[in-house]
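Slide 14.
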Amino acid sequence: MASLHEDARTKHWIVMFRYSGRQFRRSTETADQKEATLTKYRIEETLRLLKQGRVELPEDADPGVWIFSAGKIKEKQSVSKANDKTFGKICDSYLEDQVDKAITTQNSEEIHVRHLKRYFSDSVYLPSLTLDQLQKYVHHRRRMKYRGVEISGKTIRKELVTFRQIWDWARERKLVVTDCPLLDHRHKWIVNIPKPEEKEKFQAWTQIEKRIQRGGLDRKSQKRLWECLFLDEKQIAELLKHVKKKANHPFIYPMFVFVAYTGARRSELCRSLIDDFDFNQNQILIRERKRRKDMEETFRFVPMHSKIRATMLEWFTEHPGGQFTLTHSDSKRNYESADGMVGLNVTEAHWHFKQALKDTKWSVIKGFHVLRHSFGSNLARSGQVSRDEIGEWMGHTTEEMKSLYQHLFPQDGISKIQVLS
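Slide 15: predicted structure.
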């Protein structure tokens, strides 16, 4: 009915609950788990009373605020009530209102807002912000570095996309009356943002090593190359053998196998449930949140490889309990629900991923995305799976994403070039 998880940045406990088909997310404003658990219990009691019809939600009440306060606060606490148009207040209210977005998206927007606030300050009057001020923000961010690397135009654009969403959110609530200054009268971007460089195509390990051995590449260029890595089928098998031997917890090996043979994203990995594995039909349901913006969650299906079938059947016989595919009872950073179910969050999954590869040759693998792209690359190189099938299995949403592996299709182009005499 309700669940708790710890905010990695503030260490405060976040409570999540659903009502009438909507998901709500609120901070308990405390790092004390016992105190946060009491808040969760009050919410669950209120939801139970609503379900039994013993209490009614007032018509003028905001469901999230009313349930969170156990029926003590009726009115939606937003800037529209106080008519506060300062940038800080509007940003805070906007973030509070994004309850239907994925947690990873909410976390990204919180980071963007922190950068925007740091430059514009909380007290600036939002409607007063101009194109010139936003352009100065771009120049300011461009001069900054993170871990010795300049902030890219792609990152700056993401921050301004969040700014535009905040502006549009405020306009819907009549806090501003004009179009976002980032756009012209045709609703096209007019702020000047450094153009991103096209990423290198996915490359094999040996290709990357040869380029580095030639010399002349600085640390940044070498890092960018390793981000383009895909592992061939032999390397995938070798990596999984290493993980199975080194894994400190029984769920770690199934975690690697899951992504290697489904191409799932990290967040999809963490949302996976045991019932998503249909061993009769030999297919796996993947819970996604990127394909449809008008729906909180959608699904796609991936055929079940014999390797993942054997691994998961073995893992489920020793599974510690609960509904989530990947879980263990010792973690302090797990999601926890009223049913006692536990599941890995994305931060924990990434930490265990890095620990399994630490101080080995595999440490050049930066994250789950390498396994995801290896899945797509090896399917493409086989010459037996079409681009559209790969896109469907991996949940690609645009033609640009579907073409990521086009250069790896051996059946395309090789025969056609022979028309030249």
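Speaker note: Residues 76-83, 331-341, 409-414 have pLDDT under 50 and may be disordered.
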